[in-house]
Specification:
eleven-stranded mixed sheet, 11 helices, 21% strand, binds S-adenosyl-L-homocysteine, binds iron/sulfur cluster
Length: 363
């Protein structure tokens, strides 16, 4: 079933309306207190009534919600119009506000060996409406819980899927948030496994929003990276270095830093030698921020998380290279709220089917 965009449905329903009407409709979707078309009082009554009949207020519905014991992480299994499930996560951040971890696809075709979403394979890309509605879904969720902090301050594309292989829809959703919410571009992070072709497109794209980019590196050793990230192309690391310098020149200033993500897996990429290789590599690129992610075990995979002392040692080595190293705090383990490691098969949506790697940055 092909999913029609909201805009196409609107044009079909109201072929004779002036162009500004669609903008009004889109604006209404983000009104702070609107929970349905009924509340979109800026629209003429006749339009509102037809929308109530013919256009769902949300493109997805919560199939199940899981809240962590500490109440700082909530995961939603969302059902799209075609019945397919995907996940989205709300997590408390250090400013007493919320970060939403969004999915850009259902499943993922990149096949990273350590990732549960990768093991699902690729089902389909989410539409721009489905992506932007994950923010709207959580806003509505928070409105129904006035005792909780209300502000969503950050959005990270660290849920299911590879955002750069759904470039146009990701871009469209980001533009909607930038236009209709109080989230600024530096509070939005697009995490990519490093799809160089799309990264080149982004450099040439004047319409690409000035959001932060996180590149999932996982190894600065070409051979080791090929083993764990099978989409690694020949000379990937050299090309990434080159890209980083052009990115800094074309798009970069202090507000557009690149961050490298590095998931630490015992015996795979966490040795002191590989830490030195990583330090040397990053020094040669235009960025110096690295975020270490403790690996979260995935059912059916034998990888394990690097121990705390070993993570500390790894971090110390990187710091000798003058790098800015942060480490993620794992949240939501008890509800399998695995940001980017999310799975939506029947078994996998059970709370204990996998472990979380929902994370916040702690220096
Ligand atoms: N596809 C994009 C964004 C989603 S994954 C990407 O790969 O960047 C978000 C982050 O979670 C990535 O850095 C990814 O490598 C990491 N990740 C995936 N599985 C993980 C796991 N089991 N434990 C810890 N981090 C994991
Ligand atoms: Fe896809 Fe990212 Fe998982 Fe790799 S880590 S399989 S790119 S979601």
């Amino acid at each position: 079933m092909a999913i029609q965009t909201r805009e196409a449905l609107f044009s079909a329903l109201f072929p004779n309306e002036p162009a500004f009407r669609w903008r009004q409709v889109e604006e209404a979707l983000f009104l702070p207190n609107a929970n349905s078309w009924k509340d979109a009082t800026s629209l003429p009554k006749a339009i509102r009534e037809k929308l109530i009949q013919d256009m769902p207020w949300m493109t997805c519905k919560a199939e199940r919600l899981y809240t962590s014991k500490r109440g700082d992480t909530v995961k939603a299994a969302l059902a799209a119009a075609d019945g397919k499930l995907f996940e989205s996560v709300l997590m408390a951040n250090m400013r007493d506000q919320w970060t939403v971890c969004v999915s850009s696809q259902i499943g993922c075709g990149m096949g990273c060996t350590f990732c549960a979403t990768g093991a699902m394979g690729f089902k389909r890309s989410l539409t721009a409406d489905e992506i932007m509605d994950q923010y709207r879904f959580w806003k509505q969720y928070l409105r129904e819980k006035p005792e909780l902090p209300q502000r969503i301050s950050n959005v990270v594309f660290m849920g299911m899927g590879e955002p750069l292989t759904n470039y146009q829809n990701v871009k469209k959703a980001i533009h909607a948030w930038l236009k209709y919410t109080d989230i600024g571009p530096t509070r939005i992070t697009v995490s990519t496994v490093g799809v160089l072709m799309q990264m080149e497109t982004l450099l040439k794209d004047d319409d690409w929003p000035p959001v932060r980019i996180a590149v999932s590196l996982h190894s600065a050793n070409q051979k080791r990276r090929e083993e764990i990230v099978p989409t690694t192309t020949p000379d990937f690391l050299k090309k990434l270095t080159d890209w980083s310098h052009r990115y800094a020149r074309i798009k970069g200033n202090n507000r557009h830093h690149i961050t490298y993500e590095y998931t630490l897996i015992t015996g795979v990429n966490d040795t002191p030698e590989l830490a030195h290789e990583l330090g040397t590599y990053i020094k040669g690129t235009s960025a110096s921020l690295i975020n270490l992610i403790p690996y979260n075990p995935v059912v059916g995979k034998s990888f394990t998380r690097t121990s705390k002392p070993r993570i500390a040692e790894f971090k110390k080595i990187l710091e000798t290279y003058g790098l800015n190293v942060t480490q993620r705090k794992t949240m939501g383990d008890d509800i399998a709220a695995a940001c980017g490691q999310l799975v939506t098969q029947t078994e996998a949506t059970k709370p204990d089917a996998s472990h979380s790697r929902i994370a916040l940055d702690v220096s």
